[in-house]
Amino acid sequence: MNLLVFEANLHDPTHASGLVDVLDAYACDPKGGGQPLPADVKDRLVPALIEHPASLVLLASVDEQIVGTATCFLGFSTFQARPLLNVHDLAVIPEYRGRGIGRALLACAEASALARGCCKLTLEVQDDNPKARGLYTSFGFENFVVGDSAPTRFMAKPIP
């Protein structure tokens, strides 16, 4: 397997369409909601990421086919007064899962975070996704706890 992980150039049509294809495959998976991305989201995704000042998109290719992504965003830790890197999406198309591609994407994200002076990598994972949780735990991720409190829970409120 000829695996290559690299920072995407979203002005490159191959990178852009590969990203959309991987994220659409993830959206179709039961863990991603079980529905394809709406056409308008597919149309807006790449231009919006290009315009977003804190985005970092990593791609994984095998034999020149894009098969995975780590879509990340720079954030900031007020408690450490340093940037952080959030892995918003880590996705590998189903037929390539279990081959180390997710781990390679995480390693590239970590290297990018180190190069940017980040204090940590963050991500969210569903409790009922043991494969992803296992990967993240083996990579060094753990539940986030502040002091003696309980682990932090990620919450969201949709805004129309």
UniProtKB/TrEMBL annotation:
<keyword id="KW-0808">Transferase</keyword>
<feature type="domain" description="N-acetyltransferase">
    <location>
        <begin position="8"/>
        <end position="160"/>
    </location>
</feature>
<keyword id="KW-0012">Acyltransferase</keyword>
<dbReference type="InterPro" id="IPR050832">
    <property type="entry name" value="Bact_Acetyltransf"/>
</dbReference>
<dbReference type="GO" id="GO:0016747">
    <property type="term" value="F:acyltransferase activity, transferring groups other than amino-acyl groups"/>
</dbReference>
<protein>
    <submittedName>
        <fullName>Acetyltransferase YpeA</fullName>
        <ecNumber>2.3.1.-</ecNumber>
    </submittedName>
</protein>
<dbReference type="Pfam" id="PF00583">
    <property type="entry name" value="Acetyltransf_1"/>
</dbReference>
<dbReference type="InterPro" id="IPR000182">
    <property type="entry name" value="GNAT_dom"/>
</dbReference>
<dbReference type="InterPro" id="IPR016181">
    <property type="entry name" value="Acyl_CoA_acyltransferase"/>
</dbReference>
